[in-house]
Amino acid sequence: MSLKRTPLFAAHQKLGARLIDFGGWEMPVQYSGIVDEHLCVRKAAGIFDISHMGEVEITGASALEFLNELLTNDAAKLAIGQGQYTLMCNEAGGTIDDLYLYRLAADRYLLIINASRIDEDLRWIRQQHGKRSSGKQATISDRSANLAAVALQGPNSDAVIAAVSTEASIDGAECKTVTELAKNQIGKFAIDGTKAWIGRTGYTGEDGFEIITENESIELIWNKLLTTGHASCLQPCGLGARDTLRTEMGYPLYGHELTETISPIEAGVGFFVAFDKPAFIGREKLFAQKQDRTGRRTVAFTMSEKSPPPRPHYVVFRANSNDAPIGEVTSGTQSPSLNCGIGLALVSAHDLKPGASICIEIRGRRFAAAIVKKPIYRKSTH
Amino acid sequence: MSNVPSDLKYAKSHEWVRLEGELATVGISDHAQHELTDVVFVELPEVGRKVAAGEACAVVESVKTASDIYAPISGEIVEVNASVVNDPGLVNQQPYSGGWFFKLRPSDANEASALLDPAAYDAQIAG
Predict the structure, then answer these.
(1) Cβ-based contacts of A33 with chain B (< 8 Å)
(2) Strand ranges in chain B using DSSP code E only, listed in sequence order
């Protein structure tokens, strides 16, 4: 099967990007280099093509009720123009996807979903839609094939976005200018006359914006950001840096920390499961897991000694122990900011708190690591 | 374009060999370091280890992946480059000088003649 391409494919080629197969999409993994791009986002700003991600709109009088049954976070808390991180679970509490939910208008919601999960998400949403009374006045519209998106991330994002969009919002959050958007807010703005939804969010731990527009308009916006951002040291960044940036923050990546057999509680994102709202899919199982002190948990760690970078599936042991392994690494890399190995691991050990020692087995040798509190990288301390 | 020095021999698996007197110095090509991207960790064999041609004997890791490095010819490891362990970036910056991996004493003088000459290696990476 041939790889899918985003509307920015030609732009990536022109910039000399190295392209890889990412879940069936031919995407840039890097331009200048992963470490260089990573540090650029921490110090200045970067833009990422995230057009492969899916967009689904749910509209209608019962849209909120339907979404609140489908998703773990409380969608009723969203004012118009506000968004939240949330998860979609199966009855067993396993994760179907993690996503961003935006309320664009009174009865209009937008879901930003993982590229690799578009088909499975839609199958699940449609199946639930057909069998729930809350689905009766809710309409599902898959916009994934028509919409494209870029993420602008880094401390200079505010300056870059201010230079490309200067007018007041025309939909969503009411703002006199785009820089008035608060964290997690979304509004519709004009960029050189092109309309785009701009949300203040991201996947790097830095300030930033995600800009969503029609396929045919995205290259214009990408080029405008690159040109305007030059003065702010903006660089195009690939999925390699996106992964190291999110790992430093301890953010989960679907397929690694979250799967159909790993729940949000186990993955360490229980904060986004609202047990105080009406019933939702997976609630009972997730509540039981929250109470259980013997189940699996995801921990963040940093290597305590010089070692090869930790990688997914490396086995984790207690320190100074010949006992059986307690779990395995789900994400791991060499942190460009900290210059040491870092990662996330799914372990069966509730007594391991930040500061506790563990061992990671790498090619038959055990290396010492320490459990740390998330985020693994903290801006203020460096 | 990748740099392929004319005074070296190459393995299909992208290692280079510099024959000097009784010893052979081994590293990875400019093309290989470019493909691997930022090298963040290098693991070298122990001095005294006897390796066979084609045997995995070192590991080079980038942010994304770990890759084996193969002995291009058989022999005994007589020296390893501690500098590249301390500063893995040397593999990217100086693949043919400061970024060398190890030196070995060849056990079969004929093996080196089976390696690729610069023109053949150049053709391989162009293809």
Answers:
(1) 37-38
(2) 9-10, 15-20, 23-28, 39-43, 50-51, 56-62, 66-70, 75-80, 102-106
Name chain B contacts of A35, Cβ cutoff 8 Å. 38, 40, 63
Contact A189, A167 (CB under 8 A): yes
Tally of CB atoms within 10 A around A373 = 12
ipTM attached to this prediction: 0.87
For residue A244, the chain B residue with the least C-alpha distance is: B63
Q: How far apart are CA A11 and CA A26, in angstroms?
A: 13
Report the residue of chain A nearest B88, measured CA to CA: A308
Q: Which sequence spans correspond to the domains of chain A?
A: 9-52+146-247, 54-142, 293-382
Give the residue on B whose Cα is nearest the Cα of A30: B37
Q: Which of A19, A22, A31, A34 best tests the B interface by mutation, with the highest count of B CBs <10 A? A: A34
Q: What is the pLDDT of residue A381?
A: 46
Query: Thinking of the domain A293-382, which architecture would CATH place it in?
Result: Beta Barrel (2.40)
The pTM for the full model equals 0.95
Taking the Cβ of residue A208 and every Cβ of chain B, the question of whether any pair is shorter than 8 Å is answered with no
What is the CATH class of A54-142? alpha beta
Asked if A300 and A376 count as a contact pair (C-beta separation under 8 A), the reply is yes
pLDDT along chain B (127 residues), means of 10: 93 96 97 94 98 97 94 98 97 97 95 95 91
Q: Which of B35, B64, B86 to mutate to test binding with chain A, by most A CBs within 10 Å of its CB?
A: B64
A84 is written with which tokens?
């939240």
Any chain A CB within 8 A of the CB of B41?
yes
CA distances from residue B88 to A276, A287, B28, B37 in whole angstroms, order as listed = 51, 47, 12, 11
Give how far Cα A114 sits from Cα of A50, A98, A249, B16, Å. Answer: 10, 7, 19, 42
pLDDT in tens, A312-336: 999 999 998 889 999 999 999 999 9
Domains of chain B by start residue, with CATH: 9-108 (2.40.50.100)
| CA atoms of A285 and A302, how far apart (whole Å) | 31
Q: Do the beta carbons of residue A120 and residue A88 sit within 8 Å?
A: no
Q: CA-CA distance, A193 to A184, in Å (whole number)?
A: 24
Chain A interface test: which of B1, B38, B92 (most A C-beta within 10 Å): B38
For residue A371, pLDDT beyond 80: yes
Contact map slice: A 355-374 vs B, CB within 8 A: 363
Using DSSP, state whether A251 is helix, strand or coil: coil
B38 to chain A: which residues are within 8 Å by CB? 33-36
* CATH of the domain spanning A9-52+146-247, picked from 2.40.40.20, 3.30.1360.120, 3.40.50.1950, 3.30.70.1150: 3.30.1360.120
